User: What shape does this take?
Amino acid sequence: MGLLLAQRGHRVHLRERRPDPRLTPTERGRSINLALSARGLVALGRAGVLERVRASMITMPGRMLHDERQQLEFLPYGQNQHEVNYSVSRAQLNRVIVEAAGEHPAIDLRFHQRCVDLDPHSGMVQLRDEQTGQLHSESTQILLGADGAGSSVRGALVKQGLTRINEMPLPHDYKELAIAPVADSRHGGYAFEPRALHIWPRGGFMLIALPNMDRSFTATLFLPRHGDCSFERLQDSRVLGEFFRYQFEDAAVVIPDLHQQFQQHPQSHLGTIDCQGWHAGGRVLLIGDAAHAVVPFHGQGLNCGFEDCVVLDRLLSQSPDVATALASFERERQPNTSALAEMALENYVEMRDDVRSPEFAPRKALATSLERAFPGRFIPRYSMVTFHPEISYAEARRRGAQQQVVLERLVEEFPAIDSDELPPEAVTAARQYLQEAGL
Assistant: This one.
């Protein structure tokens, strides 16, 4: 956001609570690897940093499913070479963007600065230097709170009664685990095929793994906090080892220090934040996770936050004044981020449960065939969300629901349908159903 504003000639003051990532080692075990897709790529391109980031991007054209018998099944995300996700290290992405911001003469970048309080009407913000403990105030024309799900800016607005927040925690937590490179691997030093998002779906919980440039994988275990199969049951090293060997045998083999990592890496929470009142005083605005944090199961938290930047940049250039732009931003984005929050929760069920169903792959193949038969009219919802930034999240959810009805009617009418080559009568029926659905 700072880079986009600076490009428009604004003087930008970036204040970050954390240390400078250019000077400090990467924090391990706390940050989920990122899946970068079309919406994020558009924003990075607008900010002029896409080519810098591209060197750290690993192409993932689909999901690699690992079943309980260590059998693998690859499911492509889309049906052309452009419909891919990219694995990128959060630390590397942060570092690249911070480097670009630090080089821009219109951006004043300072770290170890914690927001303590603010006045949304005057634009004054009070900060504390985390190294010296000293307090100081700065005045702003526009104050953007891009400070994440635990936003201090949002907290100050809530305290003043200007913003309402509803936090909806998920009863599942996550823990990251590192899978080191394997010297004698048939995958060029990677433990598994690197061109895929790996998923171990187990019904009610799952393990995923994303590739890194150094030939390692970042694995993330998603598991209920309590219950028969939960984090609370994995405190004993013997139980932990048995659990991984039984549920994720091929992953357990390549994490020899599983118990040590499990003890050292934090168990982190997941949840959705529904925030009402993103802007205040005509000059303060929440963007990204500060306004609309979602669970990570659609791989869109990063991409949605970057898309926020593009939308706000456009509105600030088009609106007659700042207050109008900030109000327009919330009005335009809130329906879309709410739709994404719902779809992200639904995608968790798909990733951990639905992909295990014998009907999942044939239904997905049928959806792909319908997309080929009716290009532009039938686009799988995942593809709309991930690969079509011209389609809003809210529209993707609306169209996805209509398309699901079409899909179910076809399966009901043609139970033995061959999705590789749709029979003429199925094409005719699909055309009618799409027309009835307004698609």
